[in-house]
Amino acid sequence: MDGADFYYLKTQKPLIATIITFFIVSIWHLPALLAGWKNEPLWPWLILSLAIAIVHSWFFFKSRGNLLVVILFHACFDAQYSFLSKFIPNVSNTPFHQGWTYIILYCLLSLSIIFLTKGKLGYNKANLNLKEYFGEPEQ
């Protein structure tokens, strides 16, 4: 996480920190998407990625900062495309080609997380000491 993410987490605004992280991840993937990576349409990918970023953050905070939980979720999320495309006829190896239903379900999940956690995404100051986890930023 960068300094802005740390600041917003420290001020207990994990949703803003998640959106900042989403923009960073989007910029990282943008060249591949524009080059035709998996033939992903840009807008559906962005919508799904924001929803997934919220779910990733929720896993991170609920597991008390355990990155292995987030990594396993990400791996399972990516592996499902290969699984579905091998065993279900006419299913592509990309999330968008599995349909808007798939994207809408993840959006509903992320909106539920935001609503149920009141925007804190499972962040609990008592369970995750950010100074220990990220180190105190230099001033």
From TrEMBL:
<dbReference type="GO" id="GO:0080120">
    <property type="term" value="P:CAAX-box protein maturation"/>
</dbReference>
<keyword id="KW-0812">Transmembrane</keyword>
<dbReference type="GO" id="GO:0004175">
    <property type="term" value="F:endopeptidase activity"/>
</dbReference>
<dbReference type="Pfam" id="PF02517">
    <property type="entry name" value="Rce1-like"/>
</dbReference>
<feature type="transmembrane region" description="Helical">
    <location>
        <begin position="15"/>
        <end position="36"/>
    </location>
</feature>
<feature type="transmembrane region" description="Helical">
    <location>
        <begin position="100"/>
        <end position="117"/>
    </location>
</feature>
<keyword id="KW-0472">Membrane</keyword>
<dbReference type="InterPro" id="IPR003675">
    <property type="entry name" value="Rce1/LyrA-like_dom"/>
</dbReference>
<keyword id="KW-1133">Transmembrane helix</keyword>
<protein>
    <recommendedName>
        <fullName>CAAX prenyl protease 2/Lysostaphin resistance protein A-like domain-containing protein</fullName>
    </recommendedName>
</protein>
<feature type="transmembrane region" description="Helical">
    <location>
        <begin position="42"/>
        <end position="61"/>
    </location>
</feature>
<feature type="domain" description="CAAX prenyl protease 2/Lysostaphin resistance protein A-like">
    <location>
        <begin position="11"/>
        <end position="79"/>
    </location>
</feature>
